[in-house]
C-alpha cells in the first residue's frame, strides 16, 4: 500500500487560518492588558504592548482623548515649587498619562473629604515618582478654560473656577485624649 503524502500547504503549521487566529488572540490580549487597573504587572509589561497601541492609534495620551469641547474643558497640572526660595521659578508638569488623567479628573466630582484624600494619595505618589527634594512642595492644579458656547445668548464666556490641591503634611492625632 502506498501512503498518500499530505500536501505541503496543508502540513504547514502557519497556514492562513492559524496566523489570523494568533494575530486576533494577540490583539485582544493587548486590549485586555491595557484595560486592566494600574498594577505592578501592567507597569512591567507596558513597554511590550504600548508600541502596538500607539501604532494602531488605540492608545490615547494626554488631551487627545477629547474630540469635542465640553462645558468643562479642565486642564490638570502639577506645580513644584520651593517655599524657602520664592524667587526660584515654579516647575509645571502636564498630566498626560491616560490613567493618571482619568484618576485626577474624577477628583472634583467627589465630596470635599474624598477630594482631599484622593488628591493626597495622588500627590504622594507623584512626589515619590518625581524624586522631589526635601524642601520642595507639590500641588495639583485644575484650570478650566473659558469657553464660549454657541448656544449662549450674546456669546458670554463661561468662567469656571480653578481648584488647587496642595500636599500638606499630615496632622498628628492629639495625644492623651486632648
Q: Over all CA atoms, what is the radius of gyration?
A: 25 Å
Query: How many domains comprise the coordinates?
Result: 2
Please work out how many helical segments DSSP would assign: 5
String of helices and strands: HHHEEHHEE
Instruction: Give a count of the beta strands, DSSP E runs of length 2 or more.
Output: 4
Work out the oligomeric state of the chains in this entry.
single chain
- Helix/strand-derived category reads alpha+beta
Largest sheet: 4 strands, antiparallel
> Helical residue percent?
25-40%
Q: Averaged pLDDT, please?
A: 76
Strand order of the largest sheet: 2-1-3-4
Strand content: 5-15%
Gap between N and C termini, in Å?
Answer: 100 Å
Q: Give the low-pLDDT segments.
A: 62-71, 172-178
Overall shape: it is: elongated
